[in-house]
Design a protein that fits this description.
CATH class of chain A: Mainly Alpha
Strand content of chain B: 15-25%
Number of helices of chain A: 9
Radius of gyration of chain B: 22 Å
Helix content of chain B: 40-55%
CATH class of the largest domain in chain B: Alpha Beta
Order of helices and strands of chain A: HHHHHHHHH
Largest sheet of chain A: none
Largest sheet of chain B: 6 strands, mixed
Number of strands of chain B: 14
Largest interface: A-B, 18 and 25 residues
Number of domains of chain A: 1
Distance between the termini of chain B: 32 Å
Structural class of chain A: mainly alpha
Shape of chain B: globular
CATH superfamily of the largest domain in chain B: P-loop containing nucleotide triphosphate hydrolases
Low-confidence stretches of chain A: none
CATH architecture of the largest domain in chain B: 3-Layer(aba) Sandwich
Number of helices of chain B: 15
Bound molecules: adenosine-5'-triphosphate, magnesium ion
Strand content of chain A: under 5%
Strand order of the largest sheet of chain B: 6-7-8-3-9-10
CATH topology of chain A: MetI-like fold
Radius of gyration of chain A: 20 Å
CATH superfamily of chain A: MetI-like
Order of helices and strands of chain B: EEEHEEHEHHHHHEHEHEEHHHHEEHEEH
Low-confidence stretches of chain B: none
Number of strands of chain A: 0
Mean pLDDT of chain B: 91
Oligomer: heterodimer
Chain lengths: 212, 320
């Protein structure tokens, strides 16, 4: 084990890749939230609720396919680089968010919703002021799960030329340099922790006081 | 006034209707107690009055206006609603819960603050103690009081109360009933009050509407229901002791033989006590009559014979 190489990797070789990796996580995560959250909300509306089972089955199936296979499927259409990696990672991040959005909103008790409606709140007011706020903790768990998942999975982007921290780790694998693997993994672990903490902080600001 | 005309409701997918051709009038300032076994359609009727459920057929009028012509959200803001499971918003404090409808109606904050204090006091809570608390920090009795305060917030003329005192022990329930009746004396609201407890219905209702299996079986004053149960179902609901219950509805002063003079020797009751109380005193002390007093002043006597005759007459009105 060459500690100088380890430190060099950590401090000099990795930083540009950290930024690439952050992009590979934040872009798919953002897209996944934009897609999966509305899907989840729609599937809790009375008129669409009956489709929830089928949509979730599709998303569940998507989750069981290994991420590498998802990337491989898109290779012929999208070629190599950042874009196919983002698409594969987005698909991968959808399920936990959609599932927890549905679970969170459905967990709000019927009595509370009935009371809110009975007091004369409009459907929109019931949704934003009651269902969403009370479901938020569970929804946020889904987003955090996807975030941590994506930080790890995004390593594979390097295999299709999407760069990121995967570039460091796979270099270590190809050239038998455990220092690179170790340093890369360490950074990814830290990134996952930091992202999770940041999201928890954001949640704290949005949540009503007693749910914190 | 609340008026239901031939209202029916069949829920989608349900075989039988939950409510069948119910016609009912609740006069202004009166409490109509809706009573019947679980699943007989009481909640459904309430929810058709504020359009949480749309009737399959028939119409509902409030103060003469067809509710189907109103905007449902605006309609509900004008009707006080106490739901069966209380349904306080768990993420809002007591004062925010009470302020719900005033905020929807965009009352100025100063007025809301005053109103919250006034209401919490009216329902017997210590404003400073509870206003900042969340529902999970309250006792069952406190929650029900706040449910009632929230429904009263904008002083709606019409109120729907679905077992508002159902989730507390019998002693607290009696107290909440008494307090609410006292408020109602000055409020004079038009109220539909659901309960499955006949005693509560007798106590709270100016009129009682008895439901069974979606039908309205009988509608009348407590005395009419006790004296002339429409069928065996009502008779069972009223119970074996309807004679005694009749006595509970009448005051001693109504039945007594006036007598200006004399002293309160022997056993005595107050003129405003129920005749049932007088009966209990007679039974307990094995006497045939009691002296009736107003404060310390003797005003009459009530005898065992008088009570017997009264119960007999009231009971036989059914035959005649
Ligand atoms: N939203 C609904 N969808 C389908 N069926 C319903 C719905 N609400 C009530 N019902 C049915 O209608 C019938 C009457 O219900 P309702 O809630 O009015 O009874 P209730 O008299 O209030 O009973 P309880 O005393 O138990 O509260 C029941 O058979 C119930 O299953
Ligand atoms: Mg009910």
């Amino acid at each position: 084990m060459d500690s100088q190489l380890f430190l060099d990797t950590l401090l000099q070789r990795s930083p540009p890749h950290i930024l690439e990796h952050a992009r590979l996580v934040l872009v798919p995560l953002g897209l996944a939230v934009l897609l999966a959250f509305p899907i989840g909300v729609f599937l809790t509306r009375p008129q669409y609720r009956r489709y929830a089972g089928r949509v979730m089955a599709v998303l569940n199936a998507g989750q069981t396919v290994p991420p590498l296979a998802v990337i491989a499927v898109f290779l012929p259409f999208l070629g190599l680089g950042f874009r196919p990696a983002v698409i594969a990672l987005t698909i991968y991040a959808l399920l936990p968010i959609a599932r927890n959005t549905i679970a969170g909103i459905s967990s709000v008790s019927e009595d509370v919703k009935e009371a809110a409606r009975g007091m004369g709140m409009t459907p929109w007011e019931v949704f934003t002021q009651v269902e969403l706020l009370l479901g938020l903790p569970v929804i946020m768990v889904g987003i955090k799960t996807s975030a941590v998942l994506t930080v790890g999975t995004a390593v594979l982007a390097a295999l299709v030329g999407g760069r990121g921290m995967g570039a460091v780790i796979f270099a270590g694998i190809n050239f038998f340099r455990p220092e690179l693997i170790l340093a890369g993994t360490l950074i990814i672990g830290l990134m996952a922790i930091i992202l999770e903490r940041l999201l928890t902080l954001a949640e704290w600001f949005i949540l009503p006081r007693h749910l914190r | 006034m609340i008026e239901l005309q031939e209202v029916s409701k069949t829920f989608p997918g349900a075989g039988a209707p939950a409510v069948k051709r119910v016609s009912l009038q609740v006069k202004s300032g009166e409490i109509c107690a809706l009573v019947g076994p679980s699943g007989c359609g009481k909640t459904t009727i309430l929810r058709m009055i504020n359009r949480l459920v749309e009737p399959s057929s028939g119409s509902v009028f409030i103060e003469g206006r067809d509710i189907m012509k109103a905007n449902p959200d605006h309609l509900r803001r004008g009707i006080g609603y106490v739901i069966q499971q209380i349904g306080l918003l768990p993420h809002r404090t007591v004062e925010e819960n009470v302020a719900l409808v005033p905020r929807l109606l965009k009352w100025p904050e100063g007025r809301i603050k005053e109103r919250i204090e006034e209401l919490l006091e009216k329902v017997g809570l210590d404003t400073e103690e509870v206003r900042k608390k969340y529902p999970y920090q309250l006792s069952g009795g406190q929650m029900q009081r706040i449910g009632v305060a929230r429904a009263l917030a904008v002083d709606p003329p019409v109120m729907l109360m679905d077992e508002p005192f159902g989730a507390v022990d019998p002693i607290v329930r009696l107290r909440l009933q008494d307090e609410f009746l006292k408020l109602q004396q000055s409020f004079k609201k038009t109220i539909c009050f659901v309960t499955h407890d006949m005693d509560e219905a007798m106590k709270m209702g100016d009129k009682i509407a008895i439901m069974n299996g979606g039908f309205l079986v009988q509608h009348g004053t407590p005395r009419e229901i006790l004296a002339q149960p429409a069928n065996s179902f009502v008779q069972d609901l009223v119970g074996e002791d309807r004679g005694v219950k009749l006595l509970d509805l009448v005051r001693v002063e109504t039945l007594m033989l006036p007598r200006e003079t004399g002293t309160a020797n022997g056993r005595s009751v107050q003129a405003l006590d129920s005749a049932k109380k007088a009966l209990e005193v007679m039974l307990e002390h094995n006497v045939d009559g009691v002296t009736v007093c107003r404060e310390k002043q003797v005003v009459g006597i009530l005898t065992w014979e008088t009570i017997k005759t009264y119960v007999h007459q009231a009971g036989s009105e059914a035959g005649g």
